[in-house]
Design brief:
225 residues, alpha+beta, Structural Genomics Hypothetical 15.5 Kd Protein In mrcA-pckA Intergenic Region, Chain A, Pseudouridine synthase, 2 domains, four-stranded antiparallel β-sheet, 6 helices, 15 strands
Length: 225
């Protein structure tokens, strides 16, 4: 984490205290974050309210939360040097983080937000948030395929975690994961001699793609995460 996200940096560069004064204020507990006295140079977030002598020196920031349907062939990156990057095709979203990624060949739900803490927590493997996908493959699948996928496939030198698979038709299935290794579903299918022809994420935790179409987004309200 950058020092720019630390309390002392804020006190010196945004509240005009000297380094010595900032150190003393922190040691003495004179600074409160969200009404709780702090005694160390902790990380601060945009949503934090900071008080000195019960006077507000930093107010909370209202965050944006969007559900976005990433189209196929768009890179989940803000790098403007990449022609097909999200920021080049959707500049209105360039100030937002994305929680989790979708590879260029995949489409579907991304959760976009100005809340970096929320994005990191949602994407962290420890939290094991469900992600649901609809997948099309190049040849017929059966219960043997389903069982293999659900038990786990060795990719990138490790066995994937157990997951849920539902066969939709002879070449399409739904899969629910609680992890997100790089191109995981595609690698799993490849190990079973299948090629993914279409992959769409339809859900992240309790948030669903619903009636969004490629390139569309909508605001949502999130009270607590």
């Amino acid at each position: 984490m950058s020092i720019r996200n630390k309390l002392k940096y804020f006190l010196v560069h945004n509240a005009n205290f000297t380094n010595k004064e900032a150190d003393e204020l922190i040691r003495s507990g004179s600074i409160k974050i969200n009404n709780i006295s702090v005694f160390e140079n902790i990380i601060i977030y945009p949503e934090d309210r900071i008080l000195y002598n019960n006077n507000i020196i930093k107010e909370t920031v209202e965050h944006e939360y969007l559900l976005f349907y990433k189209p196929r062939d768009i890179e989940t990156t803000h790098n403007p040097k990449i022609e097909q990057s999200l920021v080049n095709h959707f500049p209105a979203l360039k100030h937002l983080f994305f929680a989790g990624r979708l590879d260029k060949d995949s489409e579907g739900l991304l959760l976009m937000t100005s809340d970096g803490k929320f994005a990191n927590e949602l994407a962290h493997p420890f939290n094991q948030k469900e992600k649901e996908y609809i997948v099309d493959v190049d040849k017929p699948i059966d219960n043997h395929f389903k069982e293999k996928m659900e038990k786990g496939i060795e990719i990138l030198g490790r066995l994937t975690a157990p997951c849920k698979v539902e066969l939709i038709n002879h070449t399409q299935f739904k899969i629910i994961l609680k992890e997100g290794k790089n191109r995981q579903i595609r690698r799993m299918c490849y190990k079973l001699d299948y090629k993914v022809t279409k992959l769409k994420r339809t859900r992240i935790a309790n948030w669903k793609l619903d009636d969004l179409t490629p390139g569309q987004w909508k605001s949502i309200q999130i009270a607590t995460y």
